[in-house]
Hints:
By secondary structure, the protein is of the alpha+beta class. It is built from 12 helices and 14 strands. The chain folds into 2 domains: 278 residues, Penicillin V Acylase, Chain A, CATH 3.60.60.10; 123 residues, no CATH class.
Amino acid sequence: MHRSTVLLAFALLAHLAARACTAFLTSHEGRTYIGNNEDSWCIDARIRFAPGGPDVHGAVYFSSWKGHPFIPWTDQLGMNEMGLVFDGLGIQPKDVAPFHGKKAIDFSRLGRDILERCADVPEAVALLRQYDLSFLHQSMLFLADAHGLHAVVQNDTVLIGHEADFAVGNWRLACTTDMDAIPIPRLQQGREMLKAGIAPTWEGALSVLERMRSCREFLGNGTFFSTLFEPDSGKVHVYFYHDFEHPVVFDLHDELTKGERTLDLPSLFPPNAEFETLQRYITPFHQRWLFWTLATIAALAVLIGLASGAVVIRGVVLRMWKKRGSAWWPAFLTGCAMLIIVALVGIFLTMEAVFYFGLADVHTALVALPFALLIAGLVLAIRMRRSVKDRWLLAPSLAVMLPVLALCTYWGLLWP
Length: 416
């Protein structure tokens, strides 16, 4: 991919770059370190230790949960006792045709298969070539091992590298990718540090991990947790919510002797003011009750919209027959307002980024929807005060609109 192509893609995909996860490998003087910054707005995370058995390697897995009722817990990264590390990163979407004749698998199982059955990157790549990876529509795997080998696996490309220093972010790679042109500042800062040379120590690797973390101005959100693996010794350093002053360190080999167990990751660390602020921030991804409340509001909006449509049709028919009837424009405006509510709720329940970057993160035209809903609500409220016979439709409509407007105000989405 040439530089001009990358810069053009940046204009369309800047929102991905703004909240990119990052990972890197550095291997010098017989010491290898693998760092990962996991960015998300999750408030729940787990560490799972899974001992091995006959022909199965023991491993530690890290997972987080958005809180969305239809998105399950999924292992996102981990390391096995042989020093093989995998990490999943989101990238720009691309469809490829299914690979007929290859095994089907989903992402939730993919990481476990790699760590349970493989000792290094070549074995992992050989295993992955047996699977139909077309489902990696907008994600990729970063693999690294104790020998300093690494690989990037996508649905259309497998890139194997031997460089002593390598870093990736949320960007789809190809054989011709100009790594210097990838528009992820944190990634480039880490790459510059690696190019300049760091001490072949844990402290040196930690300095790169810190530089590649994210802490945004709004709510202090960004990197949920970070890991720094020492694959040759089995040490696992864990950092929580871009705080690198209070690590928790595990010896993987010792932990696996304790049997299978799962730990709540946030509870392992001291209170973190920025994380507590994120926890208090109300979104349907953090509060299950709000998810179902909004889903109920959308269902009511559909019913009211259908009733409004019936009134509009009746009014148009009466007008065609030149018979007098009630004004049908309030019902038409109500139907439009209900359509806006359904659209907004659909976005709120599926696109978490809007609560942090606004509706323009999806499309600039959507910024006007909350304001349009407010104007429609004011017009309908005035109409209801003046026309008693319209209240049977307008009163429930306003009752559905008010909580949506209140939430848009809370999330800072009301004004364009």
